[in-house]
C-alpha cells in the first residue's frame, strides 16, 4: 500500500507496537499487511518529530489567486 493510503490511526499504532509492546518490524508488518519501508519511515518521523506525519511539508500545486482574468471586478 502507498503511504498516503494508510490512515493516521494506523500510523499512530506503529510506534506503540514497536516501543511499548516490543514487537519486531516483521511482526508489525504482518498484522495490518503493510511494508517494512512504511514502518521504518513512520518510526523515523516519530523519533525525529514526535509525530507520525510531517506537518512541515509544503503544499504542492499552484497558489490560488482571489481573482482570475474572467472574474475581475468592473
Written overview of the protein:
The chain is an all-alpha fold. Helices cover 45% and strands 0% of the residues. It contains three helices and no strands. The model has no long low-confidence stretch (mean pLDDT 77).
Describe the SSE topology.
Layout: H1 8-20, H2 25-30, H3 36-49
* Helix count from the secondary structure assignment: 3
SSE topology string? HHH
Question: What is the number of E strands?
Answer: 0
Fraction of residues in β-strands: under 5%
Mean pLDDT: 77
Helical fraction equals 40-55%
Query: Unreliable runs, pLDDT <50, ≥5 residues?
Result: none
What Rg is obtained from the alpha carbons, in whole angstroms?
19 Å
Termini separation (Å)? Answer: 50 Å
Shape: elongated
Helix-strand category: mainly alpha
State the major sheet: none
Amino acid at each position: 500500500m502507498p503511504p498516503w493510503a494508510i490512515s493516521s490511526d494506523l500510523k499512530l499504532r506503529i510506534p506503540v507496537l514497536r516501543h511499548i509492546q516490543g514487537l519486531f518490524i516483521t511482526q508489525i508488518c504482518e498484522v495490518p499487511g503493510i511494508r517494512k519501508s512504511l514502518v521504518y519511515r513512520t518510526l523515523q518521523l516519530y523519533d525525529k518529530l514526535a509525530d507520525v506525519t510531517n506537518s512541515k511539508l509544503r503544499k504542492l500545486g499552484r497558489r490560488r489567486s482571489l481573482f482570475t482574468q474572467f472574474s475581475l471586478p468592473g
